[in-house]
Design brief:
about 425 residues; alpha+beta; Jelly Rolls; 60s Ribosomal Protein L30, Chain: A; 2 domains; eight-stranded antiparallel sheet; seven-stranded antiparallel sheet; 5 helices; about 25% helix; about 25% strand
Length: about 425
């Protein structure tokens, strides 16, 4: 009995000692956590202040660039050959670059089948760098305010190369000083981004050489790899990215801009990143620049754009179909000499899908057309395959195949002259004809 009581007392004492030790350990751990969290929060706050400071510096640099632009104030068409294909490797001035998507790209959820950008119907300006001579200034452009810009080869592609920082180009229009942009217009081009700070492009909605900024009192649209915006007006990030940040590898982005009377929308690849309901100005021209802090031409840092198109907007697709009996679009793009649909074509394809889904009584003939470059028989076969590829894509999206048919017309029904870039671009089209 005596031993039993003693054992019980010892056990109780051990329990109390162990509990007290655990309590002290918990107190120590809590104290350590508090100290650690305090340090972390302080560090984060410091980082936020530093980041905010750098953001102000970047904004100031952009404003300096704009102020400098305020102080500055024969259409040779190249052969147009459908050069819309994105290569994966490139060589410029002996420097090799590899086009690889960053690791975050595979984690993004947005798909091109949600893309809602619809390009304008009437092409105002087109340049896919076909027939250009390397090392020469791009024949369909003018330069504004100095700098250096050349045609170059990047892999198997022709591109426009901004060789120096703060270089700006403007498209040739017949009357450059006049308002050359309608109330509804779209702008598209591909731009190359590399993993270096200040890899940016600027788009101003006025002609720096022939027009006055006084009527277009707004900052330029600044385009980063994963961010686009106009200071104090509107901006946005590509989904999956929460900060501008440097990218880890080079890749192309398809840039698309849509303006409708007042509203401006901006797309990076498949995502709409800017939606401004009232821009507050009426765009009259276009200037494309590389950023003023750019170091192009050194250390393999390259700034390229290609496949530039400006088009006038159109009425709603359903109204167009009811009015004309068909919808004509040059917005469906294909790889060169192939029937492979390029992803940026999904805007118009998705719009056609929505039309057919909302109006089950409508059936369509999908009809392909080409320009006159190349062999007649090849163009005929190519137009047929491309028309069928569009049908197949609509069927994949969920439209019954019985509502669709396809036909190719090759180069036999031109919509414009094959002697100009714009005419050839209009001829490379797909028509959706009501049956």
């Amino acid at each position: 009995m005596k031993y039993s009581v003693l054992f019980t007392v010892i056990t109780a004492l051990l329990f109390l000692v162990t509990t007290e030790a655990k309590t002290q350990k918990v107190k120590v751990n809590v104290k350590e956590k508090v100290v650690e969290e305090t340090d972390n929060r302080a560090n984060r706050k410091t980082d936020e202040v530093i980041d905010a400071g750098f953001d102000k510096i970047e904004e100031g640099i952009g404003n300096i660039f704009k102020k400098k632009e305020k102080k500055t104030g024969d259409d040779a068409s190249g052969q147009d050959t459908d050069r819309e294909e994105s290569g994966e490797t490139g060589t410029v001035s002996g420097k090799n670059r590899t086009d690889e998507k960053g690791s975050n790209q595979s984690q993004l959820t947005l798909k091109w089948n949600k893309y809602d950008f619809v390009p304008g119907e009437k092409i105002i300006f087109e340049d896919n760098q076909g027939g250009e001579e390397n090392g020469e200034f791009p024949s369909r452009w003018d330069i504004a305010g100095g700098g250096s810009v050349e045609n170059a080869s990047f892999g198997d592609q022709n591109v426009i190369w901004f060789k120096e920082a703060e270089s700006c180009i403007i498209p040739f229009f017949k009357e450059p000083s006049k308002d050359n942009l309608p109330d509804l217009f779209t702008v598209e081009f591909d731009c190359w981004f590399e993993p270096e700070e200040y890899c940016q492009y600027y788009v101003d909605f006025w002609d720096h050489k022939n027009q006055s900024e006084s009527t277009i009192d707004i900052d330029p649209l600044i385009i980063n790899a994963n961010h686009a915006g106009i200071n104090d007006v509107g901006e946005g990030f590509y989904p999956g990215y929460e900060e501008k940040g440097e990218i880890t590898s080079g890749y192309w982005r398809h840039m698309a801009i849509s303006f409708n009377t007042r509203a401006l929308k901006v797309y990076l690849d498949d995502a709409r990143v800017v939606n401004i309901p009232n821009l507050g100005v009426n765009p009259e021209g276009l200037t494309i620049c590389c950023d003023p802090m750019n170091t192009v031409g050194t250390q393999g840092i390259n700034r390229f754009i290609k496949n530039i198109r400006i088009a006038e907007g159109a009425v709603k697709l359903y109204d167009k179909l009811m009015q004309d009996g068909k919808i004509v679009t040059s917005g469906i793009r294909f790889d060169v000499n192939k029937a492979t649909i390029k992803p940026e074509s999904m805007g118009i394809i998705n719009a056609i899908y929505d039309l057919l889904k909302d109006h089950p009584e409508i059936n369509l003939s999908v009809e392909g057309h080409t320009d006159s470059d190349g062999d007649d028989s090849f163009n005929q076969d190519l137009s047929e395959r491309r028309a069928q590829a569009v049908v197949d894509r609509l069927v994949t999206l969920g439209i019954e195949g019985s509502r669709l048919s396809s036909v190719g017309w090759g180069e036999r029904q031109p919509a414009g002259p094959n002697s100009t870039s714009e005419g050839k671009a209009a001829n490379r089209r797909v028509e959706f004809v009501k049956k």
